[in-house]
Design goal:
- By secondary structure, the protein is an alpha+beta fold.
- About 20% of the residues lie in helices and about 30% in strands.
- Strands 60, 61, 62, 63, 64, 65 and 66 form a seven-stranded mixed beta sheet that branches. It has a five-stranded antiparallel beta sheet with strand order 16-17-15-19-18. A five-stranded antiparallel beta sheet has the order 33-34-35-37-38, with no helix packed on it.
- A hairpin with a 5-residue loop joins strand 20 and strand 21.
């Protein structure tokens, strides 16, 4: 029922907001079953230009001009101006491109008009956004405006409706006006969003005209379902003729933007209306008036907003307002007092009129309130001083208020607002003079409001396209908030509505029919019957689910809730319902005590911390919500009833065909009418030390090790050690020669934010080099994007790169291939010497010959000239049947299994591993390749078996085998060692030293049985544990995909020869291929050579890395290397600390895998834990030497154990002996890790579609970080009802995902789906059905 009402209301509301429908004629053919038309296909609009990028110009269809566009399926003929932040330099375009520099000042822009947002928002700290809406065809104010006024008083940033009026001329017209005054940065983002709607108003209106069509189709469809046996429980008979949702049109949607000007506005404030005089704005004569009234005022939120609007609009509140010589605004309403500020208009010279005998009458509907005997107080009328509300009230209480204004300098962190009052500087701004607030800039935020100096501005990644690498991480500081409230509800009204519902139910059903069955048969029961049964049997239901003796207080319920017991939250209101049903509730419950029928719950949440980004929205929002205490929530019901009346939905029985629909509506309306917020409390605390380090720099979440690429540029010959500051994430250098004293002589140069036709992209860790990126249409001359300064001259001599016009002549297409990325799309990975490039790939069945990257080098030369895709079978000559030449026989002449057969000891890039046993006719030998070359079997060997992994597994042992005919000595098959890129597989070996593969897995083993049956292929079967491993390995291969040969194995289980033991991998006896072509293998060694590194984590509790079960998921690392018998190999004390020099996250993962986790990351040791560690070690300071055992532990991959060939570590004493003090480690260098399990690459897919466009919205995550799929070699396939379709070119945008144009007109279908492929592997898929 609720879902149905929501659907119908949503259709109506959307239609109300956007358009009219009287011009459409959809006819019966759209919903007749035998029409042959798509049931949901909308009627075609009356449109002249159907091509994309086309619009009507001078009565004819033509290409849209620059700065505008029109997309296919837009249903309008006008060319749409490019929204803010986008541009278009081409005619006839179907889209606008985003400005890489940030935004545009106006809609309908070209690339020349793209500007840095700082040029706008840096001029002011706050702005007012005004939105005006006009809807024709409906009265959307009467009965609704009370809700708008009330709701206005709890909107953050002083957001409120200033107008809602209805006129009845040729057509009913509703006009609304809304204002909000956010901080500058947020204001511009809101304004940009509103302008986007504004430029698309006609488009949205045309689509909204389809609201009645879809409402009728939906209602017809639901009625059809209700008539079916399986859906008869719905019991619905929806009547479209009851609705009144036609002939509605959005006439106006206009947003405007105005930066705030204080009384002492800066000269460069471009949003000030008044002309500055000698650097400051001339001040108008400023006064305050105090009106009083003898009767009580209605100070509800709605009353205050209406009163404020009346003050602004009234011409009779003051003499000067009546004469038009002053501006008037409401300061505050308090008890029976009304404080008004008024100031002389700048274009009027006659003095303001002050009349003590003046009265003003305020009309609120039928109520008339007369304000009498105003008192006047002169404002400060100075640039440098203002008033607080307390001083304002005190001034009127003095004997001579006209001259007694207590004008004072506002505190730092405040400014003088337009009413002459002191107000806190908004978020993202600061003020040190108590007069103005200054914007921190587009890419900055402040930790709180009321900041006093520019040092509180914190750099953020505010969508700056080229700002990667310019800072270490988001602000880490938190503000601490406390939140509480007491919501209550008067249950008297809802109980009356429920009793009326029960009476109606008893008219419709007998007591036997309402008796709740053990099992509900939906073919016998309807939703009406279920609702009635539940309502009339609330008492028995309460006893059954809660127990007859249940009687807990609200405090007890809340305690249970915090402990995870949600059931009491249902029993608490149900208990009140049962009690009130048996009580005398007549006369609005006048015969009952209030605590009997008023249900309230005290909620006080514990103090919690919220980050800066969240605080910017949440703190202003919750600060306004104190006004919930005076809000009339009944206006929600009044507004809903008014809307339903306007839309023809007041009689829900007639609309739905249910006999209890009106009763359910009354019950729903009674709930808000009884609700109130008895108490609302909120407090936010700002602590400077939480947000800023001792250095004064912002406290940040460190993303990467700042020392990774940090360098100290100095002319001194000095040994330095780099340490990352765990607070501000900066790299700091310390001198070995001076007892590790911080070295502050590193050079730092100031690079320009822009060069001619280019912008700054990154300042390198040395701070004396920087990289720039050229603007659209320009490329770096000589592939050089590096700027360098001569730091020996003080950083003044900087050599900048040069941007030249882009004349690179790229090929338009690739035979059997495609382009998928370029240097601009991958700007985050560019180096200062990168030439402009394009990346390309080959279609399925083809592979690239040579590099997959084309470059535009000097003189605009393209290399290679033309990419080449070749079939998989090209350039692969079989080697069987040829004699083995003398050159291949090796220096020692090789060995033979029998006279006539000669196997060389060495082959190109490899060597012979063993000779096989002799047979009657053939001899054989096994070869191995040197790293990094891989073994590729002769094609003749696998040709017959390649369609069955069962058969391929049988011959896998023969992949590295050479065969010889003993009768004539001819070598028939010789394996080959190739480059991994050439072989297109990792070369997983059949043999390892002293062991061999006993089980092997192929990509085809992962395919569905149905797909194999279609191809006639067969596969092996594995248990669930092995299949899980195979999926994990394959997922890694997909993420890091290289072109690969699908007939080659990707995973195998190994066994050691007799007399040898295995050093296992993280998957035990398994070895596997990685996506980059490398592999991880177990090793077989004699017992005396076997070793293992054990780890344990200590001080996890001190570092707050212990879960609720007491298990540590992090801590300081201790290591011990043991032999086959479990004995320590290096020290008697067994466990040793490790130094974090050279330590990386992959090595942390190797440690964490021994603790039962999947992944890990290195972390700094907090000071508290470090202090405890020093006490254990007997050291006195953080620069004390520690008894370290290991250092320089690093792994190349995140799937290894410490004994892997891809991991390296050095004994600390060996490193000290080799490198001296450069290898010295101190207490703060101790190794520590944090472990986790969720580093897997995951892709979540949502599918959506319109009649002309398909969207596959994909979000990829790894280690909880978003991954940009545009940088991966992925293919997307759209399907209709499971069958692939051909679409126009599929484009990718980071926010929207993959989109393709495709017409669904007259296409019958049930579901649209998409698949994302890496090669032939599906990594994600999604589906949406009608």
């Amino acid at each position: 029922m609720i879902k149905l009402i929501l659907c119908v209301c949503l259709s109506s509301v959307l239609h109300t907001a956007w358009g009219q429908y009287d011009e459409l004629d959809y006819g019966d053919s759209y919903y007749e079953e035998d029409s042959g038309e798509d049931f949901w296909a909308p009627p075609y609009p009356d449109k002249k230009c159907w091509g994309s990028g086309q619009g009507v110009r001078e009565g004819q269809c033509g290409a849209c001009p620059v700065g505008t566009y029109n997309f296919e399926g837009s249903r309008v003929d006008n060319c749409i101006p490019c929204p803010l932040g986008t541009f278009n330099d081409d005619t006839g375009s179907d889209y606008c491109r985003s400005c890489r520099t940030g935004t545009t000042g106006n809609v309908g822009s070209t690339s020349d008009e793209c500007i840095d947002p700082d040029t706008i928002v840096s001029n002011f700290a706050q702005a007012t956004i005004t939105l005006e809406i006009a809807v024709a065809g409906k009265d959307l104010c009467t009965g609704i405006d009370e809700l708008l006024w009330g709701f206005s008083h709890v909107i953050l940033w002083n957001g409120h409706f200033t107008e809602c009026k209805v006129s009845e001329e040729s057509r009913t017209l509703t006009e609304m006006k809304f204002e909000i005054a956010p901080p500058a940065n947020i204001a511009w983002q809101i304004y940009s969003a509103l302008k986007y709607v504004e430029v698309h108003r006609e488009v949205a209106s045309e689509y909204a005209k389809l609201g009645p069509f879809y409402a009728k189709q939906f209602m017809s469809y639901v009625n059809l379902l209700s008539g079916m046996r399986d859906f008869s429980f719905l019991g619905l008979e929806l009547d479209y003729d009851v609705l009144d949702i036609e002939n509605i049109e959005l006439n106006r949607f206009t947003a405007s933007f105005k930066g705030h000007c204080s009384y002492a506005a800066r000269e460069d404030d471009i949003f000030c209306k008044e002309e500055p005089v000698e650097g400051q704005k001339a001040l108008p004569v400023n006064y305050y008036a105090l009106f009083t009234v003898s009767k009580d005022l209605d100070l509800s939120n709605a009353g205050i907003i209406k009163l404020s609007n009346s003050v602004k609009q009234s011409s009779s509140i003051l003499p000067c307002a009546e004469s038009g010589t002053c501006d008037v605004s409401l300061v505050q309403c308090k008890e029976n007092s009304l404080y008004v500020q008024f100031s002389q208009l700048s274009n009027n010279e006659e003095p303001l009129q002050l009349d003590d005998g003046w009265t003003w009458t305020y009309e609120d509907g039928e109520e008339i309130v007369e304000f009498v005997a105003p008192k006047y107080m002169k404002g400060c009328n100075t640039h440098a001083k203002g008033l607080t509300l307390e001083n304002l009230e005190a001034g009127f209480n003095s004997l001579d208020p006209l001259e007694s204004a207590d004008c004072r300098s506002c505190d730092a962190g405040h400014f003088i607002n337009e009413q002459g009052l002191c107000e806190k500087c908004p978020w993202g701004s600061w003020g040190d003079d108590g007069i103005n607030c200054n914007s921190c800039g587009w890419s900055y935020i402040t930790p709180f409001w009321g900041m006093e100096d520019q040092g509180k501005c914190i750099k953020t990644n505010h969508g700056d396209f080229y700002d990667w690498g310019s800072y270490s991480g988001d602000p880490a500081g938190q503000n601490f908030i406390t939140l509480g409230g007491t919501p209550s509800i008067n249950m008297c009204g809802p109980i009356h509505a429920k009793k009326e519902l029960d009476e109606k139910c008893l008219e419709l059903f007998s007591a036997e029919e309402l008796e709740w069955p053990e099992y509900i048969n939906l073919q016998m029961w309807t939703i009406e019957r279920v609702v009635c049964s539940a309502s009339t049997l609330s008492g028995p239901l309460f006893q059954e689910f809660c127990g007859e003796s249940w009687d807990k207080t609200s405090d007890e319920v809340m305690m249970e809730l915090f402990e995870g017991n949600f059931w009491d939250l249902i029993c608490y209101p149900l208990k009140r319902v049962v009690d009130l049903e048996a009580a005398d509730t007549s006369g609005e419950c006048v015969n009952l005590k209030e605590e009997t029928y008023v249900m309230s719950v005290d909620i006080d949440l514990p103090e919690m911390g919220i980050d800066v980004m969240t605080s910017e929205i949440l703190v202003p929002l919750l600060s306004e919500m104190k006004n919930l205490e005076t809000m009339n929530f009944g206006t929600f019901s009044d507004a809903m009833e008014a809307m339903m009346e306007a839309m023809g939905m007041s009689d829900m029985n007639a609309l739905t065909g249910w006999n209890i629909a009106n009763n359910l509506k009354d019950l729903g309306m009674a709930m808000p009418r009884g609700f109130r917020m008895k108490r609302f409390s909120f407090d936010a605390q700002y602590q400077e030390e939480e947000h800023f380090c001792e250095s004064g720099q912002p406290n940040r979440n460190c993303w990467d090790d700042a020392c990774y690429d940090a360098k100290c540029a100095t002319s001194e010959d000095i040994e330095l050690k780099c340490v990352m500051d765990e607070c501000d994430c900066s790299a700091k250098f310390y001198s070995y020669s001076d007892s590790l004293k911080e070295y502050d002589q590193c050079a730092s140069c100031e690079f320009a934010q822009e060069i001619e036709n280019g912008v700054l992209a990154k300042v390198y860790g040395s701070k004396v080099e920087a990289m720039y990126i050229c603007n659209e249409g320009w490329i770096p001359e000589g592939c050089n994007s590096l700027a360098r300064c001569d730091f020996s001259s003080g950083g003044n001599a900087i050599t900048y790169p040069k941007c030249i016009p882009d004349k690179c002549d790229w090929p338009e297409f690739i035979d059997d291939g495609y382009f998928y990325s370029d240097w601009r799309e991958e700007s985050y990975s560019l180096t200062a010497s990168t030439c402009p490039y394009k990346r390309w790939g080959c279609n399925s069945g083809w592979y690239p010959s040579g590099s997959t990257m084309m470059e535009c080098v000097e003189n605009y030369e393209i290399r290679p000239q033309q990419p080449n895709c070749v079939p998989y079978d090209d350039d692969r000559e079989d080697s069987d049947g040829g004699e083995h030449s003398d050159d291949d026989s090796g220096a020692d002449g090789g060995e033979s299994a029998k006279e006539g057969c000669h196997f060389p000891e060495y082959i190109a890039r490899g060597e012979r591993y063993m000779l096989g046993e002799e047979g009657d006719d053939y001899a054989w030998a096994v070869y191995m390749c040197y790293y990094p070359y891989v073994m590729t079997p002769n094609r003749a060997l696998i040709q017959e078996a390649m369609y069955s992994t069962v058969e391929m597994a049988k011959i896998f042992e023969r992949f590295p085998v050479a065969y010889c005919n003993k009768n004539d000595g001819n070598i028939l098959m010789m394996p080959e060692c190739q480059e991994p890129e050439e072989a297109r597989h990792c070369g997983l070996p059949s043999y390892i030293y002293h062991g061999k593969a006993v089980q092997v897995m192929f990509p085809m083993d992962m395919m569905e049985d149905s797909d194999l049956e279609e191809k006639g292929d067969t596969k092996q079967m594995f248990d669930d544990e092995v299949m899980k491993m195979m999926k994990e390995v394959m997922n890694d291969a997909v993420i890091n995909s290289q072109p690969r040969d699908e007939t080659m194995p990707f995973m195998a289980r190994y066994e050691c020869d007799e007399g040898y033991v295995m050093m296992k991998t993280m998957r035990g006896e398994m070895g596997w291929c990685r996506g980059d072509g490398s592999m991880e293998l177990p090793r077989c060694v004699p017992e005396e050579d076997w070793s293992e590194v054990k780890f344990k984590l200590v001080m996890g509790d001190t570092m707050k890395m212990v879960d609720k079960n007491g298990n540590s998921f992090g801590g300081i690392v201790q290591a011990m290397q043991v032999d086959w018998n479990g004995n320590s190999m290096f020290t008697e004390e067994s466990w040793e600390y490790a130094c974090n020099d050279g330590f990386n996250d992959n090595a942390a993962g190797a440690i964490c895998r021994t603790q039962g986790y999947r992944h890990g990351m290195k972390v700094e040791v907090p000071k508290k834990a470090l202090k405890s560690l020093l006490q254990m070690a007997g050291a006195q300071s953080t620069d004390a030497m520690m008894p370290f055992g290991w250092t320089e532990f690093a792994c190349e991959y995140d799937d290894s154990l410490a004994n892997s060939e891809h991991c390296l570590a050095t004994r600390y004493d060996e490193a000290s002996e080799k490198h001296g003090m450069k290898a010295a480690c101190f207490a703060f260098d101790v190794m520590a890790v944090k472990c986790f399990n969720n580093a897997d690459f995951q892709v979540h897919v949502d599918v959506s579609f319109t009649m002309r466009k398909l969207t596959c919205s994909a979000k990829a995550l790894k280690k909880d970080m978003t991954v940009d799929l545009s940088n991966m070699k992925l293919d997307v396939t759209f399907k209709i009802d499971g069958e692939p379709i051909e679409t126009d070119q599929i484009s990718y945008k980071k926010r929207r995902g993959y989109t393709a144009k495709y017409s669904l007109k007259k296409r019958e279908f049930e579901c649209i789906s998409c698949e994302i492929h890496a090669g032939d592997m599906v990594i994600a898929e999604g589906e949406k059905c009608r």
